[in-house]
Design goal:
The complex is a heterodimer. Chain A is α/β, with parallel strands linked by helices. Chain A is 38% helix and 24% strand. Chain A contains ten helices and ten strands. Chain A has a six-stranded mixed sheet, sandwiched between helices. In chain A, strands 2-1-4-5 form a four-stranded antiparallel sheet. By secondary structure, chain B is mainly alpha-helical. Chain B folds into two domains: 264 residues, no CATH class; 241 residues, no CATH class. Chain B is built from 21 helices and no strands. Chain B is globular, with a radius of gyration of 28 Å. The chains are: A alpha/beta, B mainly alpha. Chains A and B meet through helix 2 and helix 3 of A and helix 14 and helix 17 of B.
Chain lengths: 266, 557
């Protein structure tokens, strides 16, 4: 786990967030705080409610009840002010396939009313170089691989230096070198005061990067805290995050199921 | 898996998928489709049969040129209009990848997909069937004529589809299959639009004619193309109708043999095309791949000051339009209709003549242009819409940006057209100015209404712009535009006649031409304009509310 940040102000706060689709509660009373300069992990199985929570936090979904605050600003009450402070990267980044990488960065910078000029151009070039996209900056994004789209999506967040980053599986589809780059980058950004809320399936990434994690299961937070606090909650001393996750989400025993399946086939 | 069972599995899956699309899709669309089919079959089929029967009865010596021309014309139509379906079925589609990696022979894939590939051509051949059966009935052909006609039309469909497959195996060596499909779809769309336009305009002329039909031109044309294999089924049927069994047999055998050769060639070339990794794998040849690298476009504005979301959205849309062949090619047929109609109807011989005729044409042109350009402008953002929602900009700004992007294009077209009709109809400068003012007002209204329609019921997941707006949005746009057009023209009439009445120079029938009446009419015009503006405002307000409350996820398309 990375060292604890010194700041104590909540940069992201979910207060009793609920999202219902008819009778189904996709998110059911989720509350947590991510502090300024913290990398906060948000873990859960497929369909547990991670993406729905992140989308409520970034204003793409309106909560059925509850409040989402970014830097203390209610995103439903003051959407423009809250959105100006945050950057959200979806699992499948929202990109325009008919723009080149550089044109896309320019587009996003203009959407956020960033001052034009040499500084902006230089920052774009630096980001394209950092993500190894400089040689491809004249190619249409439609011709990019999934990993390259992920990288241009990340670059489009970093071009404008938001104070809060909400990232849904940011290392998804990245090669090992790029995944390492993203991890280092997130650590560095957190050290400089950016809050990162990270949703991931890769528990090693969460364990290495996050000071605290929240585990969500069937729309509810089942555990929250540092590794030590999670071990206490699960009553498993010395367990790693994977063991804790499996214990806290109480899924079916996969080994037993695999054996049953293979036995049935033989 | 043997050939027959593979064929059964693939075709069965295709049929199940089609059933699911129909039954689990939009119910309203299904009902509309059934109604259209129920109306179209008796109207189109019955009409064509009657025309064929009349021609066969009154022109018995022209049966051969008529049949040859029908087979040739419809074959050409199938070649143009059915091409996108053939490409989509045999060369494009991720489901095809699954078949390629499965232990199924390429021959079986070809045969199974050929059934789907022929679907558009089979639909088109329905028209040919009605005409050919009608001709036979009218000419008093023996009973054997009818089953043989059915057989020959089926063979002709196979010939054309195989020819399309052969052409495509050559084309994919230079052009990616998806691009070829998009271009073919544009050609098909343009052909369809042009045919509809020609038919519609010639129908107007037909009702004016009093002369007897003359097929001498057709006869000489058929004599020139008599060597074409597309005329062979026509010759066969003519021989049957005239009782020459031996001659008929020769032509039928020649047609069937040609079909067999073409199918075999198509299968062989298709197999080789898949084996070298073209077509379904979408491996763009080097000659094309170089084109995917584009020189970044220069900034349309000086690199100073704060970034502007307006310009960013406008520039992005412009670049997207320029580079997205599919969007561009789908827009062309939509634009051909209004421009074609307007150009044809503005001819002195055809027009209603006068200022009101020109005003009606400008209304029609602006409405169609605005609809084609603006209706899909918000849904065409697709997943990029989420990017706009996350940015610190209001949906109201997005709506304004989309209106300002389409407005100049519609106005420019309308201005060119206004000047053209004013010159042709020898209108004065004053009338030209009135037309321009009317055009500007209409363009602003229609573009705003169409953008709103797209925003009220967007289908962000749609891959085709033509299906990117739902029924509610389409009805809002059409209804709003029609209402706006009627009210605007009404206001214009009140202004013009009110002005005449106020000056005492008007001739308004029983209505007295007094200043009081004139001012009352002008006031009525102002009220209508205010109503128009409030209609546009209401639609924009609904659109803004709908976009603000939009929260469905948008699939990656």
């Amino acid at each position: 786990m990375s060292p604890s940040p010194s700041a104590t102000t909540a940069a992201v706060e979910a207060r009793q967030l609920v999202k219902r689709y008819g009778a189904l509660a996709a998110v059911d009373g989720v509350s947590f705080q991510a502090m300024r300069g913290e990398v906060f992990g948000f873990l859960g199985a497929n369909g547990a409610g991670k993406t729905t929570t992140l989308r409520m936090l970034c204003g793409l979904l309106r909560p059925t009840s509850g409040t989402a605050l970014i830097d203390g600003i209610d995103i439903q009450a003051q959407p423009l002010a809250a959105k100006a402070r945050l950057g959200y990267l979806d699992e499948e980044p929202f990109v325009h396939p008919h723009l080149t990488g550089r044109e896309f960065l320019d587009f996003v910078a203009d959407l956020y009313r960033m001052p034009r000029g040499v500084q902006r151009e230089e920052r774009m070039s630096r980001l394209l170089n950092l993500f190894d996209l400089a040689k491809k900056d004249g190619d249409l994004i439609g011709s990019y691989s999934h990993g390259m789209r992920q990288k241009i999506g990340l670059a489009s967040l970093l071009i404008r230096e938001p104070s809060v980053l909400l990232l849904d599986e940011p290392t998804n589809g990245l090669d090992p070198r790029s995944a390492r780059l993203v991890k280092d980058l997130l650590e560095e950004l957190a050290a400089r005061g950016t809050t990162v809320l990270l949703s991931t399936h890769i528990l090693e990434v969460a364990q290495a990067l996050c000071r605290r994690v929240a585990i969500i299961d069937r729309g509810r937070i089942v555990a929250i805290g540092s590794m030590d606090e999670l071990r206490v909650q699960a009553g498993s001393e010395g367990a790693n995050l994977e063991d804790l996750f499996l214990k806290l989400t109480a899924g079916p025993e996969s080994r037993e199921m695999i054996e049953r399946l293979l036995d049935a086939g033989s | 898996m043997n050939g027959i069972s593979a064929l059964r599995v693939i075709v069965g899956a295709e049929l199940r998928a089609m059933r699911n699309r129909l039954l689990k899709g939009n119910r309203t669309r299904l009902v509309a489709l059934v109604i259209v089919l129920l109306l179209a079959i008796p109207f189109l089929g019955g009409g064509t049969f009657t025309v064929g029967a009349t021609a066969g009865h009154f022109l018995p010596f022209s049966v051969d040129p008529l049949l040859s021309a029908a087979f040739t014309g419809l074959s050409l139509l199938m070649l143009l209009i059915g091409f996108p379906t053939v490409i989509a079925s045999l060369f494009v589609g991720r489901d095809l990848l699954q078949l390629v990696v499965a232990p199924v022979r390429t021959r079986d894939i070809f045969v199974a997909r050929l059934v789907t590939a022929m679907s558009a051509n089979i639909l088109i051949s329905g028209v040919l069937l009605a005409a050919v059966l009608g001709l036979g009935a009218g000419a008093g052909a023996p009973l054997i004529y009818f089953p043989v006609a059915l057989l020959l039309i089926a063979v002709q469909v196979l010939v054309v589809t195989s020819l399309q497959a052969i052409l495509m195996t050559v084309i994919v060596r230079w052009v990616p299959a998806r691009l070829a499909r998009d271009v073919a779809a544009a050609v098909a769309g343009l052909t369809g639009a042009a045919l509809y336009l020609t038919w519609n305009l010639s129908l107007r002329q037909t009702f004016r004619r009093t002369a007897r039909p003359d097929v001498s031109g057709l006869t000489s044309l058929v004599q020139r193309i008599d060597w074409l294999p597309t005329t062979w089924p026509g010759h066969a049927l003519t021989a049957i109708a005239s009782g020459s069994v031996a001659v008929a047999l020769v032509w039928v055998l020649a047609t069937v043999l040609l079909a067999a050769i073409l199918v075999a060639m198509a299968e062989l070339l298709y197999e080789r095309t898949l084996l070298v990794g073209l077509g379904v794998f979408g491996d763009a040849p080097a000659i094309w791949r170089r084109r995917s690298t584009v020189r970044p476009s220069p900034q349309p504005y000086p690199l100073r000051g704060e970034g502007s979301p307006y310009f960013a959205i406008a520039r992005k849309d412009w670049l997207g339009f320029r580079r997205d062949v599919r969007r561009l090619t789908r827009l062309l047929p939509a634009l051909l209709l209004p421009v074609g109609y307007a150009a044809a109807l503005s001819q002195p011989a055809r027009s209603l003549s006068g200022f009101w005729s020109n005003a009606a044409l400008i209304t029609f042109l602006s409405m169609f242009m605005a609809s084609a350009l603006s209706l899909p402008s918000i849904p065409s953002e697709r997943r990029g819409f989420q990017l706009l929602r996350m940015a610190p900009l209001s949906m109201w700004l997005l709506l304004r940006a989309k209106v300002f992007i389409a407005f100049p294009v519609v106005v420019a077209t309308m201005l060119v057209f206004s000047v053209a009709v004013a010159v042709i109809s020898k209108s004065g400068v004053a009338q030209l100015l009135e037309l321009v003012v009317l055009g500007l007002w209409l363009a602003a209204g229609f573009v705003s209404i169409s953008v709103s329609g797209g925003a009220i019921d967007p289908r962000f997941d749609a891959t085709d712009d033509r299906r990117s707006v739902g029924l509610v949005g389409s009805l809002a746009a059409i209804g709003g535009s029609l209402g706006f057009a009627v009210l605007s023209l009404g206001a214009l009439a009140l202004f013009l006649f009110g002005g005449q009445a106020a000056s005492g120079a008007g001739n308004l029938g029983p209505i007295p031409s007094t200043p009081a009446v004139g001012f009352a009419m002008i006031f009525g015009g102002v009220a209508l304009l205010a109503f128009c503006a409030s209609l546009v405002g209401a639609l924009l307000w609904i659109a803004n509310s709908r976009l603000r409350s939009f929260e469905a996820s948008i699939a990656s398309t």
